[in-house]
Amino acid sequence: MRRSILLYLFGIVTPALVLLYLGLQSVDRQRQAIATLGESNRVLAAEKLASRVQQRSRELTAECLKQGTGCEIAAHFFNFADGRLTSPRVRSIVPSDPAILQPAFLQAESLELQERRLDDAVNAYRALYKSSGPVPLKAFALSRVARCLDKLHRKAEALSAWQQLLRDYGNVYDPAGRPYSLTARFELGQIEGIFDELIQYRWNLSAEQFDYYMSRLNRTAPAGNRFEFARELEEHFQPAAPLREGEIYSFALPHGQVMYRAEQPGHLKGLSVNSRWIEETLTPALRRELNLPQVGEPQSNRELWIYGGTMALVVAVLLLGVVFVIRDARREVRMSRLRADFVSGVSHELKTPLTLIRLYGETLLHGGDFPENERRDFCEIITRESERLSLLVQRVLSFSSIDRGEKAYTLQTGDLAAVIAGIVEIYRNYLERSGFEVEARLIEELPDIRFDAEAVSQAVVNLLENAVKYSGESKFIGIRLRADAGNAVFEVEDRGIGISPAECGKIFQRFYRSPNGAGKGGYGLGLFLVRHIMDAHLGRVEVESEPGVGSLFRLVFPVAA
Ligand code: ADP
Asked: pTM for this structure?
């Protein structure tokens, strides 16, 4: 058996495992090759995609610059003229409007700033404001009126002047390029909404002015705003030279990319690319257009899964085989050990009656004269021991024919009550002589039952023998035969050592001996034979038992149909 396990292990399992190992290795190599190929494909695809994105960006830039207004690709626009950034502006413009620098205005300014005659200055500015001069002059004069009134602490008048400025000239810019709307609102303390106007580029400001207002508001401008871009552009941008008209060029800034083209000699127009839109909208769209896998799309590992799964299944089946083989082998080993024990046990059992028979036989033959009663005792011992011997031999023969699968029973319809009564009668004498109290209640009439008389006798004797063997101190045996629900029921009851519930399920197995029976002789065959006999009669054997209280064995024979 051990040889067959080893054969199985080495002949099937080992080659299968080797094959599995080689298979996995080759699949892994294939996978690596596919991965390398996939990697270079990915690189190629990425290059293709990048060049397509660039190309499309140029096309979109050209369209966008032609339209000149908001389009998705543009984050900010810019203009370059004669090597300088003209919009968005970084620095503020220097006031130089000649309309404002006319003598009347300069006079009023001198009254205010040099002579410090503020009341006269107010009147002079007011006169200018009321004159029919150009709008920027009137607005500027009004702002000076308000400023002088502030200095004179004529609060109410000053406020109404600022309000008027806000109302009438809010959209006008002062000579330094600041909108009166913002100046007046800061003076009036109406700063709500200014932050939003600033970051939505409502006013045409320079980066310096933008920062100035932000600091007055005590706020920080959002990252990536137009003025940040303007500063970066002014610092880093270098247009290509020479520039071909109409062609789109690109330039990388530290925080982004710009695209531009020459509008006319010396003039450039361009935009900063909205990198987020490129990444989130344009690139995926082009990726789809080029039929490239989307980012995060899983690589297929199907082959590996199929191969791995099949192999895992094969290994599982093989391992299951190993488990079964080992289990069978262990069972077989246990059985052969039990058989060996059985043979030595039986030989031992044979020796005792044989020795007694020989001893008493020789004593009778050569021992001279014995009183009649002693001779009788000797003869009885010889008879009893030969009976035990034949019982033992009968059991062994029955078992071996069952074991070979050759045991045949001859079932005949007959009087079961008479057969059982006969055996009980023979046994009863023996039991009573051994000091047992026997309570036998056997009915005499039973319905017709098909049975094998010899086998039934053996079953009955086995139960009675066990009752004697496992009675311990008790000397009571109850024997009953009755008809019950159409069945014939035979019971043997003792008040002996009993059987634990866990053992009750096992005592009918071949060679099973419970520890409670230690030292009582026997080899675990009696009940096995009883069950086999009852199965052959389509009946059953039952046991009710409690350790220390006693046991009741019941044979149930079905009535012949
Ligand atoms: P054995 O030759 O050991 O008696 P059996 O098959 O007749 O073999 O019995 C199996 C085991 O069942 C016994 O070893 C014993 O432990 C238990 N057994 C059988 N009959 C009784 C009984 N009447 N009382 C207690 N235990 C019993």
From this structure: 0.47
